[in-house]
Amino acid sequence: MNENAFYNLSYGVYIIATWDGDRPTGCIANSVMQITAYPAAFAISISHDNYTNQCIEKSGGFVISVLGEKAEPSMIGTFGFQTGKDVNKFDSVDYDVRGDMPIVKASCAYIICKVISKMETDTHTVFIGQAVDADNLIEDEVMTYAYYHKVIKGKSPKNAPTYRADAKAAEAEIKENVVKEDVVKEDVVKDAIIEAAKVEKYVCSICGYEYTGDVPFEELPADYTCPICRQPKTVFNKQS
C-alpha cells in the first residue's frame, strides 16, 4: 500500500475544547469535517489516549476553534504535546466563554456542537456533534496541515490520526523532490537519503520540531525555546 496517497487529502488545524469539570481543556485535531447541512453536523476524531476524549464524553459537547496561519505556534505545542490531565492549557491563551464553551480568541472562527452520536475505532472516537452556535472571529488565512508541516516545520503528535513515523515521512519527502516526469530515479533517492542522514540536525524531543535556522544551534542563546512547545534548548537532541 502506498501511504503517500493519504497526503492528497486536505486537513486543517483545530483546537477542540470542552470542559473538565469547571475548567476548560482541549487538544489539537486535524480531522474535522462537516457531514450534514441541515441541521449542520460535524465529525471530529479524538484519540482514546487524549484526555479531551473522556471530557467530551462527560460534558456532552465540544467547540471547534479554527486556527489561522498567524496563530502562535506555541498554542499548537501547548494543546498538541501536553495533557490536560496535568496541565491547564487555557492558562496560556486568551479565551471567551460563549454558549457555555471555551472559545480561543486567536482563531479564525468557532463552531459549538452538542454530541448527538459517536463511533468507536480501535484507537479513536469519532464524535458527531450538531452545531448550536458559530461565528467568525479574526481575519486570517486558515492554517492547513500542509502549512503546519512545511512552513512552521511542526510534527504530528503520535495521537493524531495522520501520524506517520518521521523516517517514513522524510523518505517520502525526498522521493517527492526528485520525481521528474512521474519517474522516480531510485539511485538518486538513495543517494539523497544517505546525504540527508549525514547532516547534523537538532530536534526537539518533546514535539519533534527540527531547528533549521541560519544561526548554528550551539550559538543560540541559553534562553532559546522551541517555537512549537516552548520547551528549553536543553530538550533538543543532536541527530546525524
TrEMBL record:
The record's section on Pfam families has: Flavin_Reduct, RUBY_RBDX
Protein name (database record): NADH-FMN oxidoreductase RutF, flavin reductase (DIM6/NTAB) family
Q: Which residues form the Rubredoxin-like domain?
A: 199-239
- Species this chain originates from: [Clostridium] fimetarium
> What does the record give under GO molecular function?
FMN binding; iron ion binding; riboflavin reductase (NADPH) activity
SUPFAM superfamilies hit by this protein: FMN-binding split barrel, Rubredoxin-like
Which keywords does this chain's UniProt record carry?
Answer: Oxidoreductase
The organism's taxonomic lineage, starting at the top: Bacteria, Bacillati, Bacillota, Clostridia, Lachnospirales
Which cofactor(s) are needed, names only?
Answer: Fe(3+)
